[in-house]
Design a protein that fits this description.
Helix 2 links the parallel strand 2 and strand 3. This protein is α/β, with parallel strands linked by helices. The protein is built from ten helices and ten strands.
């Protein structure tokens, strides 16, 4: 599968490209700090389905255009689009922005630059490898607007960010911001790079993963994420089942070429 200019032009709020088994999803509302609208939510759901269902795609990269922000949450100027929804069937507006909510078990590398605020965490929280530029900041504006902050910080807890730091992020509003160095210390990101190298580094990580057996890699991703919602015993049993489902017979694997690059340290 190859991307074309027609494919890129078919979306209003994002760009979507595929090359060498890697899909690149780029948030493309830099003048609005890549804040999301109903259109972006719908388009993200569509491209996640493409990533999920296209076997030639092994890995995805999620990034954003513009230097100022990765994503600053919902576009408050555009306003809500769910006011007339039935309160008992209404779903959170940003719930479908991320890969896991769309049942994507292919690895996703997220590259964060500039501001990542509030609802930007919907996407960050569901990615497998999150890296950021040295000028990235993370904060939550909900408190400033007198709005309950719930889904985004719960997602941060799910990733393993310490409780006290999640509470501080959610309660301190825009006046206190997590720096790239602090995000690395908290485990919110796994690597910090200079802003000018961010996309290249994300592409390199994705390219390395894309060389692996995609079925085995998806099984690994799914087993690990599902384990976060299971007891240890159930997680191990589930993981064992996936080794039977996703692993080819030893004789078959022995005849396949291994991909081994020179190790790097981090």
């Amino acid at each position: 599968m190859t991307a074309s200019s027609d494919a890129r032009g078919s979306y209003e709020t994002i760009q979507f490209d595929v090359a060498d088994h890697v899909a690149v999803i780029t948030l493309n509302r830099p003048d609005q700090l890549n804040s999301f609208t109903e259109t972006m939510c719908n388009e993200m759901t569509e491209v996640w389905a493409l990533v999920r269902d296209t076997d030639e795609i092994h890995v995805a990269v999620l990034q954003a255009n513009g230097e100022r922000a990765f994503c600053t949450g919902i576009d408050i100027k555009a306003g809500s689009w769910w006011g007339d929804k039935n309160v008992w069937t209404h779903e959170d507006p940003g719930a479908w922005l991320g890969p896991r909510s769309n049942k994507v078990w292919k690895p996703v590398v997220c590259a964060v630059q500039g501001m990542c605020a509030g609802g930007g965490q919907y996407m960050v929280n569901e990615c497998d490898i999150v890296i950021c530029s040295d000028n990235a900041t993370f904060f939550d504006p909900h408190a400033n607007g007198g709005i309950v902050s719930a889904l985004e910080p719960i997602g941060m807890l799910h990733r393993g960010v310490p409780l006290g730091d999640v509470l501080r992020w959610a309660l301190m509003g825009t006046e206190e911001r997590i720096t790239a160095a602090t995000a690395l210390r908290l485990g919110l990101v796994s690597e910090v790079v200079p802003a000018g190298r961010l996309r290249a580094r994300a592409a390199d990580i994705a390219a390395q993963i894309a060389e692996r057996n995609p079925i085995a890699i998806q099984g690994t991703v799914r087993a690990i994420w599902e384990a976060t919602e299971m007891t240890p015993h159930m997680a191990k049993q589930n993981g064992l089942a996936y080794t039977h489902i996703g692993n080819q017979p030893a004789a078959v694997r022995a005849g396949q070429e291994r991909v081994n690059r020179k190790p790097t340290l981090r």
